[in-house]
Write a structure and sequence with these properties.
With 463 residues, the protein is mainly β. A hairpin with a 2-residue loop joins β22 and β23. It is globular. The structure holds copper (II) ion. The site of copper (II) ion has 5 residues, from loops. Copper (II) ion binds next to loops.
């Protein structure tokens, strides 16, 4: 099985450039309580001349407000639910207090319509993160309930522009509205998830970002897509990848960035020839995503373009005492799952699909929050030995911890640093190694949100 490298090594010579002022209101002040309201809003995301789209948003903004802090700050947010369904917020990639992790019906009660819930937790890691609804996520994220969360670090490289590109893959109907008929469709759930037909970057179609000439730019890419695995290509530019899923990695030159749902990648670009186009190319046809426009009115960068020096990624500890947890992933279309256990009963795949909309299993068990998949002693070093025995790719996400990715397969390109979401190819075998130093009930699930909803998840108990 050939696996696609997460990031393709760049060949092109030109350095790129990226850029632009943030389109969001910047909420700040680490110690103040942020007010975040989930509600219904009509907003244009379908492009100029198109009708506004009925969305579910945080603070009427798409994406939701940028939350920006410094490492060591406390995040305090009062979340009000003005929707007519229950919701929660999960702070993706944050090694959080368990009771602040935002998983409805596992770590907290759902926030009912009209209610508020206060989240408060320390931010011990810097980098690019995001927050999103974690109750009926397959619908609530698809309708717009997500936003960026950025934590600055004293060791961040100096740049002229720090630009966050939050990308999404919407499925809109001919009226420019969320295609509601397809929400919950069993075909999508058993295949690659609910793929969209409309790409936005920061809620807009192919936005332009103005930058200084010769600028050094940090570009933070975040995928809020439900299911689509996107590939971003920088035309006329190469970039230095410096972080994956928030964590600094071994810097490397790239011209393409593959982002599975929920993944993030940070790159540094130096503008040395005019403007730069960023295209999404996963379908084979380049689709414009964003442009970085050199604007002479902004002047020219005075930063010296020193080599990029970032902190070393966290080193893998000794593996002498390793708790191995085998995870055999099965199910989905063209799969080999015949039957599985759901809520204590063994059912055929047909029954599971037709009566319960369950399609995926780990070790013959359909994921649900009432079953502990594994009980782990705190501070154990754990290896989730995952075998993707399905015909589909999956973006596997662990809550509350960051993991190292290991494999016996020398052809796999593995990250040197830690991640929180790993894209698995069909038939891939991988070990996700982490120190179980954060007590609580933590989900390990596919971030193709339709797969998670139909059984591809498990609860790990650490204490
Ligand atoms: Cu999946």
């Amino acid at each position: 099985m050939k696996r696609r490298h997460f990031l393709t090594l760049a060949a092109a010579g030109a350095t790129g450039s990226l850029v632009s002022p943030s389109p969001w209101t910047r909420l700040n002040a680490a110690t103040t309580m942020q007010q975040i309201t989930a509600g219904k809003t009509r907003l244009n995301i379908a492009g100029t001349g198109q009708p506004d789209t009925d969305l579910w948003l945080y603070n009427q903004s798409c994406p939701g407000p940028m939350l920006r802090y410094r490492k060591g700050d406390m995040l305090r947010a009062e979340v009000r639910n003005n929707l007519d369904v229950a919701t929660t917020i999960h702070w993706h990639g944050i090694r959080n207090l368990n009771e602040m992790d935002g998983v409805a019906n596992l770590t907290q009660a759902p926030i009912e319509p009209g209610e508020t819930f206060a989240y408060e937790f320390p931010l011990n890691d810097s980098g690019t993160y995001w927050y999103h609804a974690h109750n009926m996520g397959w619908e609530q994220v698809a309708r717009g309930l997500y936003g960026p969360l950025i934590i600055d670090d004293d060791q961040d490289p100096d740049v002229d522009h720090d630009i966050c590109l939050m990308v999404d893959d919407w499925r809109l109907d001919n009226d420019g509205q969320i295609d509601q008929a397809s929400l919950g469709g069993l075909h999508d759930w058993s295949h690659g998830g609910r793929l969209g037909n409309w790409l936005t970057v920061n809620g807009k179609s192919a936005p332009e970002f103005r930058v200084k000439d010769k600028a050094r730019i940090r570009l933070r890419l975040i995928s809020a897509a439900n299911a689509r695995i996107m590939t971003f290509q920088l035309t006329n530019a190469s970039a230095t990848l410096i972080a994956l899923d928030g964590a600094f990695c071994q810097p490397e030159q790239v011209t393409k960035i593959i982002l599975a749902p929920a993944q993030r990648a940070d790159v540094i670009l130096d503008i040395d020839r005019g403007s730069i186009d960023i295209a999404e190319i996963s379908t084979g046809e380049p689709y414009p995503a964003a442009t970085l426009l050199v604007d002479p009115a902004l002047g020219s960068s005075s930063l010296s373009k020193t080599p990029i020096n970032t902190p070393k990624p966290a080193a893998l500890p000794s593996l002498r005492q390793l708790r191995r947890i085998p995870i055999h992933m099965q199910g989905g279309a063209m799969g080999n799952l015949q039957k599985a256990t759901f809520e204590g009963a063994e059912l055929s795949l047909r029954e599971l699909a037709q009566k319960h909309k369950k399609l995926w299993a780990f070790n013959g068990q359909i994921g649900d929050y009432s079953t502990l998949f594994a009980e782990i002693d705190q501070n154990n070093l754990v290896s989730l030995d995952v075998y993707n025995d399905t015909a589909w790719r999956h973006a596997m996400h662990l809550h509350g911890h960051h993991f190292w990715v290991m494999s016996d397969d020398p052809t796999l390109a593995l990250p040197a640093g830690q991640r929180d979401t790993w894209l698995m190819q069909p038939q891939e075998r991988i070990s996700l190694v982490f120190k179980a130093d954060n007590p609580g009930l933590w989900l390990f699930h596919c971030h193709m949100l339709e797969h998670a909803a139909s059984g591809m998840g498990a609860v790990l108990s650490i204490d």
